Amino acid sequence: MLPSPNTFLRQRIQRLHQRIGGRHWFPHVPLAILLGLGGFWLLQSDLGRHWRIILDQLLAGGHALSPSLLPPLLIGVGMLIMALGLLFRSRLAWTMALLLAATAAVSLMFGRHAHAHLLLGYFVLMLALLLFAWRRFDRTSVTASTLFALTSVVMLMVYATFGTFYLGADFKPQVTDLVTAFYYALVTMSTVGYGDIVPQTPEAKLFAVSIIVLGVAVFATSLTAVIAPLVTRSLQRIVNRKGHRMQRENHFVVIGNTPLAINTLHELRRRGHPVTLLMRVEPESGVPDEVDNVIGDPGDADVLRRAGADKAQAVLAMLPDDSENAFVVLAVRALAGTARTVGAVNDAHHLSRMQLVQPDVVIAPQILGGELAAMFLTGEKITADFVMNRMFQQRTAGQTGTADTQSPT
Question: In the 8-state DSSP scheme, what is residue 90?
């Protein structure tokens, strides 16, 4: 029976994704490039080729930069910096990129910009792509958090300094240069308030209040963003340390959070065997205290050693992605341990590819389930030997494949 067009297209896309190594660079690298180009385009449309002249006049104390250029300047620079954070698949960088793209779209709708319609369409598309790929940005990175903190502080400093500079006549004494404006902005942001420069008009007073509120918020948020990943990693090490009560030798390592992996874990434990569960991320429901577990990348050799894969009886790769299961098998074999490797296959088209990495056992329960259902409905005889041969395809000594590699029909 031929697959439906949608299934055929999805399978072709999955094969292409695996062939080009998409899991290592897609979609975070293209999105980072698009965000960086959007920020550069926004800066180019507003500042144009005159940015050097504007910079020179600003350093000379002139009023070359109008207040209307501050929002696109801050948004554009923020996008360029957050593009780096997207490369680390940081959820924080994704959130900031989403906010910056939305702010840019709103600014383009109500402001006057060159190529406003093209830019608006670009950032709306950027928003859609970011929302579509939100599941891919699930990491907490100290580097991305530091970028967020630096970006927030720099943007607030630019806002406070140039705002003070343009409202200079509303202060006593008047602020007439950028150095004094920077000094007042820093003193106000830190809530020190020496009182040597005092706002006189309602506009200047409200501006000073905004600096204080934003300063407290930015510093608190930035501090939390930098410290939170460090605390999270420390807590994970403390939680994972519970598993060291079990000696990770001559045990089983089950990799994945799929129903097959969880059921295999329960059955091995019910039979009295020591088992370690290795997952990429901890589920929202948590892991029972009695289950020895390790959280980390299953393809990382250090994570596998922490789970005792080099000293285990067997390592069972039961992730939902067949390519990741094959990669785990290769990583376990690279440890040069004595553990047997078991690779799960979810798609019949990937069976031969799994056999290329030569795991000791290939298990294909979903493939077998479909074949058994067809045999039962058509009245074909089902034997125990048939089920075992189709369910578990073992690599015998001196063989590079299996006795039966034909995909079920």
Answer: B
